[in-house]
Amino acid sequence: MEKSNAAILGIESSCDDTAAAVFQGGRVLSNCVANQEIHRLYGGVVPEVASRAHQVNIVPVVDRALKQAGLGVKDLQAIAFTRGPGLMGSLLVGVSFSKAMALSLGIPLVEVNHMEAHVLAHFAEPPYPPFPFLCLTVSGGHTQILLVEDYHKMTVLGETLDDAAGEAFDKTGKLLGLGYPAGPQIDRLARDGSVRFEFPEPQLKGLDFSFSGLKTAVLYFLKKEMGQNPQFIQENLADLCASIQHRIVQILVKRLMKASKETRIRHIAIAGGVSANSGLRKELLEVGAKKNWEVFLPNLEFSTDNAAMVAVAGYYKFLKGEFSGQDVSPLARWAPGRD
């Protein structure tokens, strides 16, 4: 594929992070994010609050991204934006802004699938995974194993049937009395704990995942133990976190091992917000060494929701001339590999 020095502005607004980035010449020149801390008060993302915050943040974030990149709006060759999947109200802000900006500048508009962008975040900086590779995408809303054969060809081999891995962290964390988001807190506390408590692993055929049963198992376990000792959680918090994290990581890695065996692919990558989890990274590297895998871990900057990954994904669609019209609308649901 012929390369280009085109400057691509990426815009991400699928959930509660307003992000903008510039990608040019194979390099991320800027990657700016405005977080919405207010959702911590509610224990989760409130869609209406998120969309209103996006309206406030999007212009300053785009302006900051351009200034950090040392470029003006007239230096841009295209605008890439997250069309979906995500919260409809949040997506509407990013899509509408991107359409208006592209129209005013007379430059192409490139729609990007949020989950495909997480995968292509691996091409934001070297080392780049060679095709084909398997990518485990894990976040608060998605858990999937993808067969990635090209920048534009991805196939879902397995996905969650209920809760995503990120939801499992947050919901079990809530049972432990941790604030939102609980995933990073469980990860931190688990480092000082031991795996002392056994939680069940779902017995599923194929490569699909299920995490709802884990939350229920933790709920009943805690109810039983708290009935005998009201201080049980406080006295065993680190070990509980280590045990919960161990089970989630094992579920993820075992499915990935199965996918590698079935496809005979040894190039393995992870992506999405949960890919920042230290326990998952450590386990993947250890298993990879035993299985002779070549493992690719994304830079933490490109793991959580960000616009650099959108700009990168948009760049490869730009090279193919795959542009969107002004009639494009957001998609709350949009599976990777599907137009």
Summed up:
The chain is an alpha/beta fold and 339 residues long. It has helices at residues 47-69, 88-105, 114-120, 165-175, 183-190, 212-228, 232-263, 278-291, 308-319; strands at residues 8-12, 18-24, 27-34, 78-84, 109-113, 133-138, 143-150, 153-159, 267-271, 294-296.
What is the CATH class of the largest domain?
Alpha Beta
* Number of domain units: 2
Task: Please list the strands of the largest sheet in the order they lie side by side.
Answer: 3-2-1-4-5
- The count of strands amounts to 10
Order of helices and strands: EEEHEHEHEEEHHHHEHEH
Radius of gyration: 20 Å
Structure overview:
- With 339 residues, the chain is an alpha/beta fold.
- It has two domains: 8-122 and 302-319, Nucleotidyltransferase, domain 5; 129-298, Nucleotidyltransferase, domain 5 (2-Layer Sandwich), CATH 3.30.420.40.
- Helix content is 42%, strand content 18%.
- It is built from nine helices and ten strands.
- Strands 3-2-1-4-5 form a five-stranded mixed β-sheet, sandwiched between helices. A five-stranded mixed β-sheet has the order 8-7-6-9-10, sandwiched between helices.
- The mean pLDDT is 93.
Descriptors:
single chain, 339 residues, alpha/beta, Nucleotidyltransferase, domain 5, five-stranded mixed beta sheet, 9 helices, 10 strands, 42% helix, globular
Question: SSE layout and pairings?
Answer:
Blueprint: E1 8-12, E2 18-24, E3 27-34, H1 47-69, E4 78-84, H2 88-105, E5 109-113, H3 114-120, E6 133-138, E7 143-150, E8 153-159, H4 165-175, H5 183-190, H6 212-228, H7 232-263, E9 267-271, H8 278-291, E10 294-296, H9 308-319
Parallel strand pairs: 1-4, 4-5, 6-9, 9-10
Antiparallel strand pairs: 1-2, 2-3, 6-7, 7-8
